[in-house]
Amino acid sequence: MPHGRYRHPRICNPSGLAAAAAALKTADIRGPADFADIVKDAAEGDFVYFDPPYHPLSATSSFTAYTSEEFVWQDQLRLKESLDELAARGVAFVLSNSSHPDILGLYRDFKVDLIPVRRAINSKANGRGPVLEALVTNRECVRVSE
Q: Which of 52, 65, 93, 106 could be 48's S-S partner, Cβ–Cβ 3.0 to 4.6 Å?
């Protein structure tokens, strides 16, 4: 997405960037690969964040791929199986996805928070407002406000 025309962009925050760099020093960032392969060695005490292509909220919201392969409902089901396995191994996780009723039903066994998120990209101006996203976790989280 375009970087925009900001006079004082928040990304150019030296203390924020230093804090992010410190937090990432011990991170193990992997990819590109299938999510199941990436997390197969995750163990108790690890934390994993998943940001898959979201399940479409409507027939016109059709972005389902970051690569040439589409992320279809069967992949959503495989992802749920992976999260079940991670939870059984004591691995903490957070997943972000759409607030589609099928997604909410799929993850009903976990903690699900609906978070309003502002969308800046849409072919229709009235579609650029806030939408609800689902944050799914197997842990209690500390809520951070903007």
A: 93
